[in-house]
Amino acid sequence: MSIAAAESGVERPFRVSEPSLPAADSTEGRKRRTHRPQRIAAIDVGTNSIHMIIVEARRHGYRVIDKEKEMVQLGRDSLEGRPLTDDAIERGVSTLRSMADIARRWGVDEIVAVATSAIREAPNRRQFLSAARKASGISIRVISGEEEADYIYRAVRSAVDFHDGTALSIDIGGGSVEFIVGTQNEVFFTRSEPLGALRMAQRFDLEKGSTSTAIAECRSFVRKTIRKAIARISSYGFDFAIGSSGTIVTLATLSATTGAGDGMQSGLRWLSRTRLGELIEALTPLSLAERSKRFALDEKRAATILGGALVLDEIMRGLEMEQLRACDAAIREGIVEHFLDQRRSSDAAPRGSIRRSSVRSLAERSGVERAHASQVARLALRIFDQLAEIHQLSTGERELLEYAALLHEVGMHVSYQAHHKHSYYLISHAGLRGFTGDQVAVVANVARYVRKSPPTEDHQNFADLSKAQQNVVLRLAAILRVADALDRGRHGVIRDVAVVAGKRRIHLELRPRDEADVELAAATKRAKYLGRVFERKVDLTLV
Q: For position 214, what pLDDT does the model report?
C-alpha cells in the first residue's frame, strides 16, 4: 500500500490538501511538530474494506491530510455466524500494520479505530482483535449497528446542507445496511439490517455471475427484511435521501459516466431509480471478468456490486424514491466528528475536566458499555432539567447525576447479579480526582440504587450519609432508575423524553425512534419509585 495523495483545495471540513512532510530531522520539521494542530487517524474496519483518514484539527472543523483504503474483505467466506478465516485475519492484520506505520509517519496524536459487522458477528473476533493490537499497536472497538449509524449520520450532516429539511440516510456496507432519519440537529430513527453487499453476493451466489432465480430470491429476501424499516421510515417521512459509502458512490459514479442526466450537482452525485435499474440489467448477465472490464471496476468491487445494487433498488422501490444523492462521507469521517465534538465539550468546561476525565478513565477500565451509559446519562439529565421546580436541586447535583449515570455499570465486569453493589464499591474506592469525599459518596450511592431495592436506613452506606445527602440521593436515584429503564433494550430507541409536572401528577412523554414497548414497560415499573419520592402519580406514554 502507498500513502494516498492529498487533494488540493481551500480549508473546509473535508478534502483539503496538506503540504509534503518536512524531513524528520530538520529544524523546520521539529518546529512544525511542536506547534502544529492535533492530528487524528480514524480507522473503519469494515466487512468489505478497511479505511483510514488522517486529519488535522482546526478551530472550525478539520482538514484531511491523508487517506488509505484496502479492500481486505474480512467477511469473505464468513458472516452468518461463521468465524473469520485465517486468510482474512492475516489480510486484516497486515493492512492495519501498514496503516499504523503511515499514521506514525504523520506523527498522529490519536488513533481511533472501530470495527463493524464482520468483526461484530465473528465468534473468533477476539483472536483478530488481539492479533491486530499485537501487530499494529491499534486497539479496535467493536461497535453496534446503532453506533455505526450514528457515526455515518455525523459524517453526512457535516458534508451535506440539509436546508432545514428531514433526510433519510442509507449506507450499504459490506455486511450491513444502516438507515437513519433525522434533521441537521436531531435523529428520529435508526435501524441496522444484515443486508450488506458482500453478504448478499455470497448468500445468493452473485459474485461471479447470476441467474434470474438468484436475482429473484435476493430481491424477495431483501423485501422481507426491510419491511418494518420501510414502514417506520414512511411514517416519519423525509424530504430527500442521501446514500453513503463505497457501493452507493460506485453505483452513482457508473450512472454519471454511462447515463444521461444524472451527473454532478453541488459536489454530490445523483442516482436515479431508473438508471439503477438499467445498471442492474447490464450487470446481471456478466461474469466477474466482464463486469470488471466493462465498468472498469476492481475485481473485489465487481464481485459485490450487483448484490449492493439489488438491495438499494428494493429500498428505493419500497419507499417510492425516484432518486438519491450519493455522498462519499462515511464512518471514518463520523469518528473524527465525534472525537472533535468530545474534545470541544471538554474544552468548554475546563473546571470539570479533571472530574470528567477521571470518570471516563474508570468507565474505560471497567469496560462500561459506553453507548448505553451515555444514553442513560442523556435521558437522566433531560428528566432532571424538566423536574427542576419539583426537586429543587442545583447544577452541582446535576453534574453528580451525570457521573453516576456514566458509572452505574462499572461493577458489571465483577458480577452481573449484584453489579449495582459492586459499582458502589468501585466508585467509592477508585480515587476519583477532582471530587470531595461527600461528592464521591453521593455518586456511588446514586449508582448503587439504579436497580433492585431503593435506599433505606437499613443500608449502612445510605445511613452513613448526612440528611442533606440522603435527600439528594433519593431524588437523583429516582430519576436515574427511570432513565436506565428507558434504555432497557440497549438500542437507544428513546430519542427524547418530555416531562409535564403538576401538583399531583408527573407525565412522561417518550419519543421513540423505533418500537419501544420493552422500554415503556420497564420505565413504567421503575417510575413508581419516582412517584413515591416526589409524592405524585406518574404515568408514561409513547408519542
A: 95
**Contact between 89 and 21 (Cβ < 8 Å):** no
Mention every residue, 6+ apart, whose C-beta is less than 8 A from residue 493: 487, 512, 513, 514, 515, 516, 519
What distances in angstroms separate CA 23 from CA 30, 31, 34, one per listed residue?
9, 11, 14
Q: What is the DSSP string of 194-261?
A: S--HHHHHHHTT-SS---HHHHHHHHHHHHHHHHHHHHHHHHH--SEEEEESHHHHHHHHHHHHHSSS
User: Do 492 and 146 form a contact (C-beta atoms < 8 A)?
Assistant: yes
Q: With cut-offs at 50, 70 and 90, classify the pLDDT of residue 189.
A: confident
Q: In the chain, how many H helices and how many E strands? A: 21, 15
Task: Provide DSSP, 285-321.
Answer: T--HHHHHHHHT--HHHHHHHHHHHHHHHHHHHHTT-
Residues 415-420: contacts with CB under 8 Å, at least 24 apart: 420/447, 420/448, 420/449, 420/450, 420/451, 420/452
How far CA 289 is from CA of 48, 253, 298, 419, in Å, comes to: 19, 19, 10, 56
One-letter amino acid of 166: T
As a whole number, mean pLDDT of residues 232-249 equals 91
Predicted confidence (pLDDT) per residue in 516-540, tens digit: 999 999 999 999 999 999 999 999 9
Burial tier of 434 (Cβ tally within 10 Å: 0-12, 13-18, 19+): middle
Evaluate whether 520 touches 489 at the Cβ level (below 8 Å).
Answer: no
Q: Which candidate, 374, 327, 343, places its Cα nearest to that of 14?
A: 327
Q: Is residue 25 predicted with pLDDT exceeding 50?
A: no
Rounded distance between C-alpha atoms, residue 392 and residue 526, angstroms: 21
Range 507-512 average pLDDT: 94
| Rounded-to-integer distance, Cα 338 and Cα 345, Å | 11
Average confidence (pLDDT) over 273-283: 94
- Strand 240-244 to 167-172 pairing: parallel
